[in-house]
Amino acid sequence: MPLPEHLRALAAVYADPSAAGSPLALRVRAALPHLPFTVLDQGQSPPRDQPGQIVHITSHKGRFLRPCPAAKRYRCCGYQIVHTGEGCPLDCSYCILKAYLKHRTLRVFANQETMYRDLARRFGQDQARPFRVGTGQFADSLALEPLTGQARDLVSFLGDFDNVTLELKSKVVDLTWMSAAVRPDRVLPAWSVNAPDITAGQEPGAASLPERLAAARQCAEAGFRVCLHFDPVIYYPGWEQGYARTVEMIRDYLRPRDVAYLSLGSLRFLPELGEAISANPLYAHGEYVGGLDGKRRLLRPLRVEQLRCLAGLLISAGFGPAIYLCMESDTVWREVLGRVPIGPDNLGRFLTARAFADG
Question: What is the pTM of this model?
Fold first, then answer.
């Protein structure tokens, strides 16, 4: 099977000595037989100056399950990250990973047995607690699936745990993991969505908006509930018409009961991305200020205007019960949705209830 377009620019594969013979490394090597495969010396790192993007197969030394990094003064969704790797082969102009990781190496963690052991211990010792987890924080959940099969493996593994729902968040279309899902009610395929102008012009390598929504409909028809994420919502000339068109498309492809939850998050970025953001003409129309989390974000009146407009469109289309705001203050919640989640972790409880609603 030919590689998808977003993986055709890969230039080389490097592997740590301890990971070079792993099942995951063998999969990657078989999927990329045309690329050089180099086993690094002990303690050696892949070169940072090699042209093109590289895959680094390594082992993760830290925790495989961790809470989403969040600012205390903004409402957090309570999502927990299954840390399977870092980096993304897409090149979205606004991507915050460019500041977090400071390199474009695609790190893939090959010590899967250690991960499964850690996850089984965590989920098994607290079986009364529902866990809402996902892999789409430091990497796209599905972008490397043709090489690694990690999503398929994880979906299969988590089929033994009734108290876990797994969200697979992506901007590409790869549904090869579906046949491994023992419990469709415990897997939430998710896609980032945006205005058509943004998906076409600012997300090179990603699937088109119709392709993402068609995949979401295919999942819904197979018994999965899906998640959609308007993140980031971007302020640009014609944004009202752009986001209205996206809501129309969502309504054409999905029914409200197909969607577990739907997030709205305004563009925010670390100061390290400021130069790249300011150099992009698209972002010249917004006014950005420092936020409570150290990130730059759209001025609040503009932010509220956009989020309120988009929320209104989605509510009119029947998706109101699924909406939440990503990383916003109580003030913005009140101004946009007219309500605030009660208690510090109530948003997390709300989303967990939505995630397990059909369980």
Answer: 0.95
